[in-house]
Each structure stands twice: as C-alpha cells, then as structure tokens.
Design brief:
Alpha-D-Glucose-1,6-Bisphosphate, Chain A, domain 4; five-stranded antiparallel beta sheet; 17 strands; 469 residues; disordered C terminus; SH3 type barrels; alpha+beta
Length: 469
C-alpha cells in the first residue's frame, strides 16, 4: 500500500471516531434534557397516587367542585412570600387545577396545582392592582386530603351493604328439594307444587357459584331475620337521635351568633378610592396605604379630626374623619369628654376675603399666572400662636372647599394661594393640577404638602421647609 492509500485510510478512521464522539455528546445532552423534564414538571403542584381507577376518582372530584376554588380570608399560610409583604394584599382568591392519569397498576395519579390572585395595595398608589401569588402547597395538600377522605368513605359505603346483605347459610332447603325430587308417584297436589317451583326457577339467572336460599317456612327464618334487622335499626336510630339533636342545637346557636355579628356597630366605611391611611394622627404623617371606596375598618377611637382604626392584627392606622362614614347614630356629642382638649382649627381662623390676581411670588410653577387668593385671619388677634399643625389643618379644609367651588364655576385660574394675615402667619400656594390629583386620591396629604410652596417654610413644619427648598 502506497503512502496515498495509507493516508486515506487514516483519515477515514479519524472521521468515524469524530462522528462517534459527536453522536455520544448529542445523545448525552438529549438524555439529560429528558431526565430533567419530569423534575421540572413535578415542581408544579403536588401529586398523589390512589388505588381507585381514574373513572372513580373523576366521579368523586365532580362532587368536590365547591372545594376547588373560592376566596381566602387571609393569605398568610396559603401563599409564599414574594416581593411585597402579604399584609399589603387584599381580596385573595384561589383556584385549583386537577389532572388525573391512570397508573400501570390500575389506580390513578392525581396532580393538583393552585393559583392565587389578590389585590395589591401599593403604598405609593402607582402599582396597585391584581397580582398572581405562588401557593405554598397547603391548598393542594388540603384538596388531596379531602379527595382521600371521600374515596375512603365511598369504599366503606360500598362494603357495608355487602356485609349486611350476606345471608347465613342454611342446609334445610337442599334436603327438602332432594326429597321432593325422589317421590316416584306424586299426588295431584304434590305434582302442582314442583311445577310451580320449576317455572320460578327457570326465570332466575344462572349463577356461577351455588348460593343458599332462605325460605320462610311457617314464619320462621325470614320473619325472625326481618324482626332482628328492624330492632337493630331502631336501636341505631335511638342512639344517633341525641347526637343529631345536639348538632342541630349547636348549628342553631352558631347561626344566631353569625346573625348578631353580621354587621358590627363599630365599623367605619371609606367614602372614596385612594383615601390615605396614615401612621399617626398628623397631616404630614407617613402614608401606610391607600384604601378603596367602601372598605370597612374597626374603629378604636376618634376625635374631632381623626379616626383611629385597626388595619389587621396588631396593625393600626389613622384616617381623616371627613373621609369615612361613621357608625349609625354616632356624632360629635359622642366624643369622649376631655376638659383639656386642644382647640380645633375651625375655632381659631376664618376666611376674610377671596380674590383673583397674579401670583404674588417668584415660585416657578405659578410665576406670573392668575391664582385664587384666599386671605385667612385669626378670630382672636390677641390669641397666641396656635402652631403649624393647626395652620396646616385649616389650610387643608380651605384648599378642599376652594377647589370644589372653582371646579363647579370652571374659572380660569392656575392655582390657589392661602395667606395667613397675622404676625405669625405665612403663605401656602398649590397648583390646580396638584390639587386635582389630591382630590382624585392619587396623592396623600403628605405628598400634597411636598408639592406646595411655603413662605416662610419655618412657619409651618420641617417637612414643609424641606419641600420648599
């Protein structure tokens, strides 16, 4: 063999080894993908096998439709913690998807996966909406446990009648039939009896195994058996009657409790969407979240301006009193007595005059624009400074009222300016678009003050001074 032939043979060997190595790598990768597939599928939900057939399991699942979906009173314990705390979610709802497959042994494999959705209350209000949460497996496990109980109950219900209906073997009928057949010359009456018995026997189905027959001869076996069964049923009914009466009494008691607790008389209802629930009874307090219209909270206490509510568990919050509907029959006369109560802003200030003119300042958002100027004066000039908190409280009520009036009149102004005409006063300016967002619930009270202009800032609060810089 010359050099060219030896070189060609060597190259063919290299190509065969290369192809085998590439095929091996591809085969290993394909096997790895196939083996990884079941693991990823199993991570989606819970699976359990049952000895019953697929048809039996699906029939039982049809009777359990009410357990596969519904509302969740709380999310803690059912959903896994995600990007946001679970107490920021409301109106939880779950839906379980069930898939049944037959197993080689004749049983069935049941897989359950749960999907949880809930409304997320974004504290900032910009990302609120329904979100999908991950189940922690409790819903799936509970549904599989209920299915196991139902299947076990069905097996017991089918087995019980079979045990009760099993007759006691009696050898008496066999000799009687044999004796009747051995009579060589029956009398006419005796001949009629076998003929009747023969016709009845011909209509009965063929049985694969002999079964003893119970005949009632002179009111004997059947009568005594029927009497025994009747007595057993009577004893069973008398034994279960007290339990049924006790359960009925307990159910009536629970129904009465639910009726009395249908609507407690200490709940306050939110009037509009986007109402802020704040951490403390302060106009510049931190906003915990924005409540929706018709949300109800348990009222713990209240005063002239604020209502203290229970949010959930040990969590508490405050809501501006004008933003909620108080319980029926509860008014200012029900305020707790407090002889040293602080004065209310409405008792210290009043609106002296209103006019429209160019903005009297150099703040960029309102520079050179027409604004509604509201001049506020003290009711008692000799009274000492009431403090920035009461000034902000009165300013909030004036901004609310003035904006509503301007919106009805549709007057062309760009903002509202409050001037406190006193030695310890100052000026607050708010653009109309900012007030519109605040009235729509998109801005909390604290966010409103950060969008306003204060002059001088120190006449109000530290947060107002920071917002005006």
């Amino acid at each position: 063999m010359d050099y060219a032939e030896r070189f060609g043979a060597a190259m063919k060997g290299h190509r065969r080894r290369f192809h085998r190595s590439v095929f091996g790598v591809l085969l290993t990768a394909a096997f790895g993908l196939c083996s990884a597939n079941p693991g990823s599928a199993q991570s989606n939900g819970l699976e359990r096998t049952f000895p019953q057939s697929k048809a039996t399991v699906e029939q039982v699942l049809k009777t359990m439709q009410g357990s596969t979906s519904g509302r969740l009173p709380v999310l803690d314990g059912f959903a896994a913690a995600g990007d946001h705390p679970l107490d920021h979610y409301r109106r939880g709802y779950y839906e379980c998807k069930v898939h049944v497959d037959s197993t080689p042994s004749g049983g069935s494999a049941v897989r359950v996966s749960a999907e949880i959705t809930a409304w997320y209350n974004d504290p900032a209000g910009s990302h609120s909406g329904y979100q999908v949460l991950v189940s922690n497996g409790r819903l799936e496990a509970d549904l599989l446990d209920q299915l196991a109980d139902q299947l076990s109950a069905n097996v017991q219900a089918v087995a019980a009648p079979a045990r009760n209906a099993e007759p006691t073997p009696s050898p008496a009928p066999a000799p009687a039939a044999k004796t009747t057949a051995s009579v060589p010359t029956p009398t006419p009456a005796a001949a009629a009896a076998p003929a009747k018995t023969k016709s009845v026997t011909a209509a009965e189905p063929n049985l694969s195994a002999p079964m003893p027959r119970i005949t009632d001869t002179g009111g004997g076996i059947l009568s005594s058996l029927a009497q025994t069964l009747a007595e057993q049923q009577k004893e069973k009914n008398s034994a279960t009657a007290p339990d049924q009466r006790s359960l009925q009494a307990e159910a009536d008691s629970l129904e009465q409790v639910l009726k009395n607790q249908a609507h407690p008389n200490n709940l306050v209802a939110v009037k509009k969407d986007g109402t802020p629930v704040v951490a403390t009874a302060s106009l510049n307090a931190q906003t915990l979240f924005l409540a929706s219209a018709h949300d109800e909270f348990e009222m713990l206490d209240f005063n002239q301006d604020w209502v203290h509510v229970r949010v959930s568990g040990i969590s508490r919050g405050w809501i501006w009193r004008d933003s909620v509907e108080m319980p029926n029959g509860l008014g200012d006369s029900d305020l707790p007595p407090n002889p040293q109560a602080a004065p209310v802003a409405a008792d210290l200030y009043h609106v002296a005059r209103e006019e429209q003119s160019p903005f009297p300042g150099d703040w960029e958002p309102l520079r050179g624009k027409t604004v509604e100027i509201v001049t506020v004066e003290k009711l008692d000039d000799s009274a000492k400074d009431p403090g920035p908190q009461l000034r902000l409280g009165f300013a909030k009520s004036v901004l609310d009222k003035s904006y509503s009036e301007l919106a009805q009149k549709q007057q062309k102004v760009e903002g509202i300016v409050l001037i406190f005409d006193s030695a310890d006063g100052g000026m607050i300016a708010a653009p109309l678009p900012v007030l519109q967002q605040w009235k729509a619930g998109k801005l909390s009270d604290a966010a409103l003050w950060h969008e306003c202009f204060f002059d001088p800032p120190e006449s109000f609060t530290a947060s107002a001074a920071a917002a005006s810089q």
